[in-house]
Amino acid sequence: MRVEMYANDGAWYSAEYEEFSVTNESAGYQLTVFGYSGDAGDQMWASNGQKFSTYDNGMMTYTAMTMQGGWWYSGYDCACLNGGYEFTVMAPQTGFYWNAAYHSPPPPLSVLVDVKPGRLLMSRIMIARP
Length: 130
Description:
Blueprint: E1 2-6, E2 12-22, E3 31-38, H1 61-67, E4 79-80, E5 97-98, H2 109-112, E6 116-121
Antiparallel strand pairs: 1-2, 1-6, 2-3, 4-5
């Protein structure tokens, strides 16, 4: 998986993950993501191993409702690519964000908070058949 985003400093940043997979519905759409490379910082680390939550389903329904989008919320989230853009009730950690938690991998926190939605690219998708 590759995520590309346009940040508020006027530059494009990317994060690539060697593996990105999601389980089936009965397993709660649990996320496996690892093998980071790029210049946007590994902001998916907290979502790894989490089950998907929406406003009406999952362990983090209130968070999904507040963020205006379903995601693999952990409570320590650094990224959410499904939320509403420029939603500011709990700004800046609501809506669409990347690198919004209390970690400081390069680039600095201030560079990527409030990023503009970019591109999510998927390749080499492997589907296991029963």
